[in-house]
Amino acid sequence: MTKVFAHRGASGYAPENTLEAFALAGEQGAQGIELDVQLTKDGEVVVIHDETIDRVSTGKGAVRDYTLEELRRFSFHNHKKEYEGVQIPTLREVLEQVKPGGMEVNIELKTGIYWYPGLEEKTVELVKAAGMENRVIYSSFNHYSVQKILELDAEAETAYLYSDVLLNVENYAKNTGVCGLHPAVYHLKMADFLESYRRSGLKVRVWTVNDEADMRQFIEKDLEAVITNYPDRALRVRDEVNQ
Ligand code: G3P
Ligand code: MG
């Protein structure tokens, strides 16, 4: 059965990439969460999507120009008044919080703009320290980062992220030891890649699926997961499909 992953947590309701959004994902019944990681100035792995804090917090500037302690001074409520005061979480904190609930965790390494030397090593260490190796999927638009993860942990579950169509992406993934594909929803809507993806046996988790008709299509095709800002909506659609 297609799993429902909460994109940046249940970010349609709670501020993205916060402990509150991940908790809500669990309460809504998601099977997994997706989150983005970057490094602070003092080398802490923090969970945030943009390379700057401007859009989601009360501060301004680049994540990598602040220490963790400095980032803690800002509120990351992302214009949702009722969440004022929520802080940026570290990856360690998120893993600790979600571990008891059993959700899977898709860690997206945000190494597209800055390469953040050491991010892959630190991320793998944190996952191992939490004892969550079997519940984590590492992905990145930077495929070098994905390969770095495999060098660090040959058993790691990995996936290639991509927005535009990649030719022969199934062979590319298989030939480079990657078992997951994370394509953008709009590319799957442009052409019929679904059958080819299904035949490949790779684990396809499509993002960001917020539209009910799209959810239904991917759930009916039995993809590995839909990654959505609205896990409750996807779970309802899944119930309808499986009735
Ligand atoms: O990992 C799926 C999705 O999060 C990739 O795009 O920009 O939302 O991180 P983005
Ligand atoms: Mg992401």
UniProtKB/TrEMBL annotation:
Pfam families per the UniProt record, alphabetical: GDPD (PF03009)
Residues annotated as domain GP-PDE: 2-238
Superkingdom of the organism of origin: Bacteria
PANTHER family the UniProt entry points to: GLYCEROPHOSPHODIESTER PHOSPHODIESTERASE, CYTOPLASMIC, GLYCEROPHOSPHORYL DIESTER PHOSPHODIESTERASE
Name by which UniProt lists this protein: Glycerophosphodiester phosphodiesterase
Source organism per UniProt: Blautia hansenii
Lineage start: Bacteria, Bacillati, Bacillota, Clostridia, Lachnospirales
